[in-house]
Amino acid sequence: MATNQTVLITGASSGIGFELARCFARDGYRLVLSARHDLEATDQKLKSEFSGLQTVLIPADFSTHEGPAHLYDETKRQGLQIDVLVNDAGFGEAGLFTETDLQKEIGIVHVNVMSLMYLTKVFLHDMVARNSGKIMQLGSVVSFLPNPRQAVYAATKAFVLSLSEALQQELKEQKSEVTITILCPPATETNFFHVAGAENTKVGQSDKADPKDVAEAGYKGLLSGEARVLPTFGAKMNFASSVLFPDSMLAVLMGSQMQEEKK
Question: SS3 for 201?
Fold first, then answer.
């Protein structure tokens, strides 16, 4: 499918973000890729797979106040109209809240909440003004579930869900053609668990979803304007559990998955 549209993907250098970049590249989008690290290597990988691919690389650190503003300003400076925004950048931290690193968790809030909110605000304003555009927000199954030993990360993903669902309703009231899709994957085979220090937990040692499958489901849902994408059977079961069982029970179940496996 050939297109003359441009997609901006944050967190594009690995995991689900990289696989989403592959989906868009396959269909001829121009890619604006942003991350803190490894953008050149990512660019080379994509161009070796997709001949004629057009890319723009904009490094940004979303753990700072300046990062998202720099990204938006740079797209304006280069005259780029962003037709699709993918807010993929995010990370987590595992452990008891009383023992985890405060500065790292402040960074998590900056990346997962503040930067996502900023970029959604400025690009959604532009999209509504021209009545055209799509946004994908990376939520999680923990958007619906309290998650002991990953409390801050889960709280940020609950924010993403709440914000995005409210904006979906606002867009309906405005009769706008702009759509927002929330992708809520389960535990996925990325470097998330390594960065979070959760590789030795039960969930970290479990079978996880393939990021290619997650990205493909999210991409299809985005193009069709779906409000929410639960990309695997496991994700659908997690959501069903959040409806059927009280939070107190879910917190016990989720907390058990974050316990370290005994050697």
Answer: strand
pLDDT of 202 reads 65
Rg from Cα positions in the chain: 18
Written as six digits, the tokens of 48 are: 């070796």
Domains of the chain listed by start with CATH number: 6-257 (3.40.50.720)
Alpha helix positions (H), the chain: 15-26, 39-49, 66-77, 102-109, 116-130, 151-173, 192-196, 202-205, 211-223, 233-244, 247-257
If 0-12 CB within 10 Å is exposed, 13-18 middle and 19+ buried, where does residue 18 land? buried
Tell me the mean pLDDT per 10 residues along the chain, length 263. Answer: 85 94 96 92 96 96 94 97 97 93 96 97 98 97 90 96 98 98 88 62 70 96 96 85 82 75 57
- Within 10 angstroms of residue 199's Cβ, the number of other Cβ atoms is 15
pLDDT at 33: 97
C-alpha torsion 130→227→148→232, nearest 10: -130
Give how far Cα 191 sits from Cα of 43, 62, 163, 165, Å: 19, 18, 26, 28
This prediction's pTM: 0.90
Of 148, 238, 221, 255, the C-alpha closest to 186 is: 238
Active site residue ranges: 153
